[in-house]
Design brief:
The protein is α+β, with helices and mostly antiparallel strands. Helix 2 crosses helix 3. The longest helix has about 35 residues. Keywords: Membrane, Signal, Transmembrane, Transmembrane helix.
Length: about 220
């Protein structure tokens, strides 16, 4: 029995519908879950394509070297999988040896690692919070005598310049046009020498830590306003 034209149209329409109507329950993925599924599907697709390429190359070589057996696709999948595991083990051993030979020289940045820059040792988290509290106290006092405004730059005559020196090297960064006590914009943040996660002083007086990528995005959004 051949499907009617109406049935085909209905099938195409149902496949194209992006969400249900009439109060029906709709189950959707979060942005994070969707991104992970996209990454996994791309990895799986690449894995299957590489296995097909390996099978093709192997069988071409088998025509020249008759001692080589013909390779089936499932066997090619196994070869690629085992080879990937071997590479993973080798890279893990290299990373371990690198850390043993240069202990403490590497710091985490996002999903990877980078060489820790030379200079003063990074203070602990509590000391970093206390340093920001000290800066907050000075800025809030400054704002009381300047119509609620933060200093236009770190180097004003009413504030000791040494206050802006970060113990791990570099200077604290001051965001422009942010009023103390108003909103939750970033007012002060640590320099890049603080590592992959930096503490920030928000306009409402709270101190939080931010991953480097998240902080960069937030700062860009503030500057665009």
């Amino acid at each position: 029995m051949k499907p009617s034209a109406t049935g085909l149209v209905a099938i195409v329409w149902l496949a194209a519908v992006s969400h249900a109507a009439a109060g029906m329950t709709v189950v959707t993925l979060t942005d994070v879950a969707r991104a992970r599924i996209d990454a996994l599907s791309f990895f799986l697709f690449t894995y299957l394509v590489i296995a097909w390429v390996v099978k093709l190359i192997w069988n071409q070589l088998a025509k020249t070297f008759t001692s080589l057996p013909r390779l089936k696709y499932l066997q090619a999948l196994g070869v690629v999988f085992i080879t990937g595991l071997l590479f993973y083990v080798v890279l893990t051993m290299i990373s371990g040896a690198r850390e043993l030979l240069t202990p403490g020289a590497w710091e985490k940045q996002g999903t990877g690692y980078r060489m820790r820059e030379g200079g003063p040792a990074l203070p602990d988290k509590e000391a970093r919070r206390e340093a920001l509290r000290e800066i907050q106290s000075v800025i809030w006092s400054y704002a009381k005598s300047h119509e609620g405004n933060a200093p236009a730059s770190p180097f004003v005559k009413d504030i000791d310049p040494a206050l802006w020196s970060f113990q791990g090297g570099g200077l604290y960064c001051l965001m422009p046009d942010v009023k103390p006590g108003v909103g939750r914009d970033v007012l002060i943040y640590e320099p890049s020498s603080a590592g992959a996660r930096r503490f920030v002083l928000l306009a409402d007086g709270s101190i939080e830590d931010r991953p480097e990528g998240t902080l960069k995005t937030q700062l860009n959004e503030q500057l665009k306003r």
